[in-house]
Design brief:
392 residues, five-stranded mixed β-sheet, 12 strands, alpha+beta, three-stranded antiparallel β-sheet
């Protein structure tokens, strides 16, 4: 699989060569099959015979030792077939490329406002606290019709929703209970007084669709909060560490050429994982042949997107780390198939705009501390710098 050092920057993680499907174990010790080649991972993520719902059947082995949002059976990501499609349809129209393109001007305005604030700060300033965190939180808050007073609570709940097992189970359970109550209350507010926001649209779409359980809607709202900012914050923090720490030659180009910034953002999403655990699990409903190997019915399959994104048969080693080169094939960082990340276009847009405008406004931006002194966020399945002091 991969060599994991929790103190190593995410862009330096070492990956083994992908190969044929083979037996492995999940971190909790549950037997599984590892799938790591690009074509094989795409097959597992796209084939309806590999589902998520059965991972949470009453007799299924535990995937995690602590409660978390990711393993909530009501979460859209953990539904299959008609149940999954019903939930996905309630949000799909909101996150199309056309919809995100309409949002681009006000996302850009948020970026500029944060850059104005950063410019006023004394140096060195913290690029995480001043930019990488508040940008995606502000964007998802605007989309959901929330004001700045909710930001601290949203961040607290997100940290527990993606717990890596180091938090006390009771602490996680308490935070998730508060989070669910927040989601239920927000849905009730939007039913009473609909507005021009994602939650109001979600309520209307769910009523039109019919058959969507309230618990599933609450999980959908909580999933929007977490997915809408944690991943983008993580990507941006790790991208800045890599670019300013090791790829400084790219920085001026980022600010001068918006198309170059788009290619760099796509490469960074492809190359830099969100966390140390890159596998996504599925359950085999029947015997299925993958890459010449028969995976038996009932098996748990771990699809390693990090290894697949480095498959030399698809992504030549000569251009893998060329940040200005277009990707040779679609990245698997956002998944594939029915569960492809709905927020992919939004995340890409935020990352592109953030890198382009930050480099344009601060062409001399540089790290104030050595990269090996970075303190990492802990306690969640995603990993990025807790702070990143910069000068300009």
């Amino acid at each position: 699989m991969t060599t994991i050092d929790p103190t190593e920057p995410m862009h330096r993680l070492r990956f083994e060569e992908p190969g044929a499907p083979c037996r492995t174990e999940l971190p909790c010790g549950t037997p599984a099959w590892l799938v790591s080649r690009y074509a094989d991972v795409r097959q597992v993520l796209s084939d309806p015979r590999f589902g998520r719902a059965q991972l949470y059947a009453p007799d299924a082995p535990a995937l995690s030792g602590v409660p978390d949002l990711v393993n909530d059976p009501d979460l859209m990501f953990n539904q299959d077939g008609p149940d999954h499609l019903r939930l996905r349809r309630t949000l799909r129209r909101a996150f199309t490329p056309r919809a995100v393109a309409r949002w681009r001007p006000w996302i850009a305005a948020i970026v500029e406002e944060l850059l104005d604030r950063l410019e006023e700060r004394s140096q060195p300033a913290d690029a995480v606290a001043e930019f990488a965190l508040p940008l995606p939180v502000a964007v998802i808050s605007r989309l959901m019709g929330l004001d700045e007073s909710a930001w601290v609570r949203l961040r607290h709940w997100s940290e527990h929703a993606f717990s890596d097992g180091t938090h006390e189970s009771e602490q996680v359970a308490s935070a998730l209970k508060e989070f669910s109550a927040f989601g239920a209350d927000l849905l009730a507010q939007r039913r009473r007084a609909p507005g021009d926001d994602l939650v109001s649209g979600l309520v209307a779409a769910a009523d039109e669709e019919g058959g969507v359980a309230e618990a599933q809607l609450v999980s959908l709202v909580c999933g929007l909060v977490v997915g809408g900012h944690d991943s983008t914050m993580t990507m941006l923090g790790n991208a800045l560490l890599y670019l300013l720490g090791e790829r400084r030659e790219i920085w001026t180009r980022l600010g001068a050429d918006e198309q170059a910034a788009e290619r760099v953002a796509d490469r960074l999403v492809h190359l830099v994982p969100l966390g140390d655990d890159r596998g996504t699990t599925r359950h085999a409903a029947t015997d299925v042949e993958v890459g010449g190997v028969t995976i038996p019915a009932g098996a748990i399959v771990l699809a390693d997107c990090g290894m697949a994104n480095r498959d030399p048969e698809v992504f030549p080693p000569a251009t893998l780390h060329d940040l200005l080169a277009p990707l040779e094939a679609p990245t698997l960082s956002f998944g594939a198939g029915p569960h492809y990340c709905l927020g992919a276009w939004l995340a890409r847009t935020e990352l592109q705009l953030a890198l382009h405008r930050l480099a344009a406004r601060f062409p001399d931006l540089r790290l104030a501390d050595p990269t090996d002194t970075v303190v990492w966020r802990t306690g969640t399945t995603s990993r990025s710098p807790r702070s990143l002091r910069v000068r300009w």
